């Protein structure tokens, strides 16, 4: 069984500024600092934020899993697209064979863009009920946190 969910958030900040956070390791830092209800800790296992980077993510208690390793499989600075896949733990422990997140920063104007987050997944038929655990909400919360962080940094 396969599925996909997406979320879009418009941000009145230049796409290049948003990509500075999303394009590398700054996103994990921001999430750990500002969304303590989601991510307890992260460690860079390998890499510097480019393709092949592997992060060990430790989530807060109460989620269906505690630890996952994700690998950056695509980082396109020109198109502002980053894709990550869970390679160990996380949803893979729940019968999923693929859990991929695509983060896109889509330029609208010179001073506005859209943060588009997409989860694509495949789950074994015998674990199909676990597909209901897939939620785009954490990525909506992350996008809003990035937006608010960037907007608060702009002098008024």
Automatic annotation (TrEMBL):
Name a GO CC annotation attached to this entry: cytoplasm
* A UniProt-annotated Pfam family: Bet_v_1
Keyword annotations: Alkaloid metabolism
Residue limits of the Bet v I/Major latex protein domain?
A: 2-133
User: Its Gene Ontology biological processes?
Assistant: abscisic acid-activated signaling pathway; alkaloid metabolic process; defense response
Q: What GO MF terms are annotated? A: abscisic acid binding; protein phosphatase inhibitor activity; signaling receptor activity
Q: Which InterPro entries match?
A: Bet_v_I/MLP, Plant_def-hormone_signal, START-like_dom_sf
What family does the database annotate? Belongs to the BetVI family.
**This chain belongs to which protein, by name?**
Bet v I/Major latex protein domain-containing protein
């Amino acid at each position: 069984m396969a599925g996909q969910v997406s979320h879009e958030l418009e941000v009145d900040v230049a796409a290049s500024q948003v990509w500075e956070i999303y394009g590398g390791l700054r996103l994990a830092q921001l999430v750990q600092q500002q969304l303590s209800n989601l991510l307890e800790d992260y460690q860079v296992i390998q890499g510097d934020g480019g393709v092949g980077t592997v992060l060990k993510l430790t989530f807060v208690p109460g989620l269906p899993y505690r630890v996952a390793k994700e690998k950056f499989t695509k980082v396109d600075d020109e198109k502002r697209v980053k894709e990550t896949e869970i390679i160990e733990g996380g949803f893979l422990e729940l019968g999923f064979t693929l859990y991929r997140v695509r983060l896109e920063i889509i330029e609208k104007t010179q001073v506005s863009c859209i943060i588009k987050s997409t989860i694509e997944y495949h789950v074994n038929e015998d674990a199909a009920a676990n597909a209901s655990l897939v939620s785009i909400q954490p990525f909506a919360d992350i996008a809003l946190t990035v937006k608010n962080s960037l907007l608060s940094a702009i002098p008024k």
